[in-house]
Design goal:
This protein is mainly alpha-helical. It has helices at 3-21, 25-42, 46-54, 57-67, 72-75, 80-87, 91-108. The chain is built from seven helices and no strands. Keywords: DNA-binding, Transcription, Transcription regulation.
Amino acid sequence: MTQEDIDELKGIYLNMLDAGYSNNIKNQIELDNEFHRKIVYACKKDALIRVWETMCIPFWTYLGTQLFNSQKEDLVPRHYPIVEAIEANDKQLACDLIKAHFFELKELI
């Protein structure tokens, strides 16, 4: 990702944080999806993009948001370590954090 992409990702994160703290769930979910979509498309892997676009991600994001409702203040901040790993160009750490992020939701479902 370019620095411009990373800056955009940070902006999405900050807007998502604001939406979460102001209890604007609809906006939080839209921004969460935008955050993940930005990372998926930055990978430039057609197979990953196809999977992303066909998995009804907004539904899963909504479900995850509802399942985490009692820990809502923790939902958005768990994205920032991913941003930090990407900015540090630590591909392995970014990959590990993204996997953990996904499997955390999977375990709840």
